[in-house]
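Students often ask why we bother encoding 3D structure as a string. The short answer is that it lets us treat folding as translation between two languages. Here is a chain of 403 residues written in the first language.
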Amino acid sequence: MKYVVMLGDGMADYPDERLGGKTVLEAADIPNMDFLAQNGAVGLAKTVPDGMKPGSDVANLSAMGYDPKTCYTGRSPLEAVSMGIKLDDTDVTFRCNLVTLSDTENYEDAQMVDYSAGEISSAEAEQLISALNAELETDDIKLYAGVSYRHCLVLKNAKTGGSHTPPHDISLRPIKGRLPQGENSELLISMMKRSREILRDHPVNKKRIAEGKNPANSCWFWGEGTKPSVPSFKEKYGLSGAVISAVDLVKGIGLCAGNKCITVAGATGNYDTNFSGKARAALEFLKSGGDYAYIHVEAPDECGHHNDPRHKIESVEAIDRDILGYLLPRLKEMDESFSILLMPDHPTPLKLMTHVSDPVPFALYRSDKRLAPNAPVYSEKAAKETGLYVPQACELTSRMIDK
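And here it is in the second language, the structure alphabet:
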């Protein structure tokens, strides 16, 4: 048996008047997702346990078959692992976004103009992180460059206990009252303020402004965590797995679980990503003897954060057409049965521009037997109407493999 998880990050949504009162899934042309719903078990699953924040870290752990309540130690350490950062038990890590803040005399009076600094390129960001390290790095403080706007801060010999706000939760809103609080907050705020001084006149930002792009004019620290502890996927489920994603967070979960991480050329973490390349990589892995492919596509989530219905619909349709539409017929040609689990990690409603912890619609299909209850289409409403509810989404992996 071969197994595929098709994870459309943030693709679940709320009805939107711009879409005629439909959700993105209802408005999109998704015949392959509908096929899975018509021939597989459809329902709602809770990916975010009560008391935990609806981040992609917690939700993707659930979707990959892990209970976040037992193994979650924070978001940033998972990203750090993917970036090849060796962590000690006394290290504390933080996600470092390069963001665009409004230009105000007092830092605290600024507004979060853009949590991604205009989806800054990795090459530009690397220059900025290097400039920040030149001024801020010490024996106990170091920044590491990642992908696009997503980077990592490591504090040596530190403690956890702070409170932090994800920048995508306050898009176009004042940052006052959302700065770090508690443990390490004085240091983090001072670094954020200093970063704006360092980055304001950097050549990269001058060029971006001249080109009409948002400058990366500040750091924003969040996602505190410590060295992760995720059990082996092979030992837990008896399967050799691979993760295909452009996002360090998801790759980090895969690496912590002992799975292979496959890099796909042109995978960007946005709607211009290489959808078909991810499908080809998954099929090649399965054909070469692998058992389980976790395909993660960040694009719908990014479009949700930017309140961009057109590109969110196009992203969901590309998942349907270029990934599922490619895989389904080719998996059927193989001399082995297969299963596909289709789901988001969490909803990212367009009108809210951030994550929510609502249960997500899933469709679980197996080629060797018909599962139930079925649904006429794949959507939030159709999934709810089946009456099937999985209170712990991490159980879906066991159901998928009949373990």
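Translate back mentally: The chain has two domains: 2-73+230-400, 92-225. Keep this in mind for the problem set.
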